[in-house]
Amino acid sequence: MKTMVIKVGGALLECDKGMVRLFDTLIQLQHKGWQPVLVHGGGVLVEQQLSANGMTTTKHQGLRVTPEEQMPIVAGALAGIANTKLVAAAKQVGLVPVGLTLADGNLVQAQVQDPELGCVGQVTANQPQLLQQLLSLGMLPIISSVAADAQGQLLNVNADQAATVICQLLKAPLTLLSDVSGVLDGKGQLIPELTPELAQSLVKSGVIDGGMKVKVEAAQAAARAIDNRVLVASWRYPEQLAGLIEGHSVGTQVYP
Ligand SMILES: Nc1ncnc2c1ncn2[C@@H]1O[C@H](COP(=O)(O)OP(=O)(O)O)[C@@H](O)[C@H]1O
Ligand SMILES: CC(=O)N[C@@H](CCC(=O)OP(=O)(O)O)C(=O)O
After folding, report:
1. Domain 2-254, classified CATH 3.40.1160.10, yes or no
2. At 9, is the secondary structure helix, strand, or coil?
3. Is the ipTM reported for this complex over the cut 0.90?
4. Any idea of the CA torsion for 224, 11, 213, 66, to the nearest 10 degrees?
5. Ligand 1 pocket test: which of 39, 180, 185, 191 has the largest number of ligand atoms within 8 Å of its C-beta?
6. pLDDT digits (tens, 9 = 90+) for 143-193
């Protein structure tokens, strides 16, 4: 069996049709002999929950500044609302999901990335055994991007970086599914192949920015770790999910 790590952005959680299509895709991948592992974001939900609790939030270079007092709400949104919603939707279509965070099973080691960003975590791969066991039982791990450091502090990890660390941990191919069809150029056209040189120039000119800059950098780190291309595509378009199953080229291939 071959493992595949798939990450979905939080906007998926607002789209019931998108969730059904995604889990149908995972079932078909299982039938083709793949063992998928799902990593998810939930940035939209985090914003809704912080605002419902009278809190404001900002991002710095695509990463959410996370003061300690906001961490319980962030963890509640990602590991609570988002994770359980995906687990329930996966279960509904007959998959056997197991909801996890990055803090479970010694999967990763986490530490504060930069004190200026508050409780934002940076993570390194640690022990794959928990995931290997779940996969050998035919289960679908669904992992939120909440981690805990050695001092027991919960940390908020960008979900693309969380997916990269799980890809490094399992040495498995990685697909990052967003709400856009891939990395777009200055005219809004899809870039089928993104080399490090092209990425560098598009970041420099501001064409790739915000969440996509973090995503491309996470994809490049994963591509280097597995010495293979990483796919950035969309959960929104059925033809892209079909391409994923059939192994056709869709979205943007990010080169190491
Ligand atoms: N060059 C680009 N190509 C595509 N999207 C871009 C680009 N530059 C910035 N973006 C923004 O990045 C977003 C995707 O990043 P993000 O919101 O973090 O996605 P997700 O939540 O799916 O991980 C797009 O919706 C778009 O607004
Ligand atoms: C540190 C940091 O930025 N954490 C992210 C975690 C969720 C995430 O990445 O969600 P998407 O994949 O939907 O963008 C956040 O708080 O939004």
Report:
1. yes
2. coil
3. yes
4. -100
5. 180
6. 999 999 999 999 999 999 999 999 999 999 999 999 999 999 999 999 999
